[in-house]
Amino acid sequence: MQDIQASTSTIDDERPSSTAGGGDAMARLLAEVEALRAENEDLKLLYEATIEHGEAVEDQLAESNMLLQRVQTRLEEELNDALRYVLSLLPQPRQSGPRTDWMLVPSTELGGDSFGYHDIDADHFAIYLLDVCGHGVGAALLSASVINVLRASALPNADFRDPSAVLAGLNAAFPMEKQNNMFFTIWYGVYQRSTGQLVFSSGGHPPAILLHDMPDGSVSTDLLIGSGGMAIGAIADLDYDASTVHVQPGDRLLVLSDGTYEIGTDGSEPLTFQDILDFTRKPGGDEPAAVLAWARAINGDETLPDDFSFLRVEF
User: Considering only Cβ atoms within 10 Å of each terminal Cβ, which end of the chain, N or C, has fewer?
Assistant: First the structure.
């Protein structure tokens, strides 16, 4: 009996303590739980901070958006003011002596096209249309400056009845290096009422078109090109030649920019000057509204790729 008890006691002494091992595992588990709880608290704090930051960012974005909208509204108002000023420089259509009609549609808020006509004196009537390279505020400002010079006859030592002198004076007054590297093309003509002579000159501009009704009902056309004319401001100290043509009562003079016909058609080559020349020969094809409708129909969109300016003068 004593031997059996002794053996049992020995076995108990040699068996590992399950209570001690379980305590260590539990401690490790509790430590892990605490670590997870602490990590969870950190994540909660990070989440709350992220939410607060996001709300602050949203507030900043909302404030920035409101500021941007105010700036955009102000810019649109200023552009509208500038457009109204540019349009205010354009002359009113005349009903006689000679009769005029015109259409100007910028391709953007502000364009570089402009034109004008006015009496130089009782016998001489000036007609002009210009196209500044590019678009936007800079082009519009240069265009307005040139128009104001022409309207006020403000070129030193220039006889405004002489188109070649006017273009040379403009070339000297507006060199492109002083105009943010912008230049412009122009067609300038002077009609003398007493003789029916139209003297004209061109600085890199498309030809003007002179239409004359023939006795057989057809329409003859003369292209008033001008010779040797470079764009104004591109090269200093240029001379510009003038040409003369006789006009008769009922003749129509069409002065236009290249934006009236340089229009793509479904990815093909743009139209040419010949295309608009052919159109203006048709009955009613010399009316500015008809030419604009023709250009828009070909373009497939009311917004044309370039400024559209078209001036019709009937003698």
Answer: N
Q: What is the tens place of the pLDDT at every residue in 59-100? A: 888 888 888 888 878 877 777 788 888 888 999 999 999 999
Q: Exposure string (b/e) for 26-42, b if CB count within 10 Å is 16 or more?
A: eeeeeeeeeeeeeeeee
- The CA angle 88-90-91, to the nearest 5 degrees, is 110
Using CA atoms, how far apart are residues 148 and 110, in angstroms rounded to an integer? 17
Runs of H (alpha helix) within 89-222 = 137-152, 163-173
Alpha-carbon distance of 135 to 64, in angstroms, equals 29
> Per-residue pLDDT tens for 111-159?
899 999 999 999 999 999 999 998 888 999 999 999 999 999 999 989 9
What's the CA angle centered on 158, arms 156 and 164, to 5 degrees?
A: 140
> Can you name the residues that pair with 185 across neighbouring β-strands?
131
Query: The tokens of 227 are what?
Result: 């010779």
pTM for this model (two decimals): 0.77
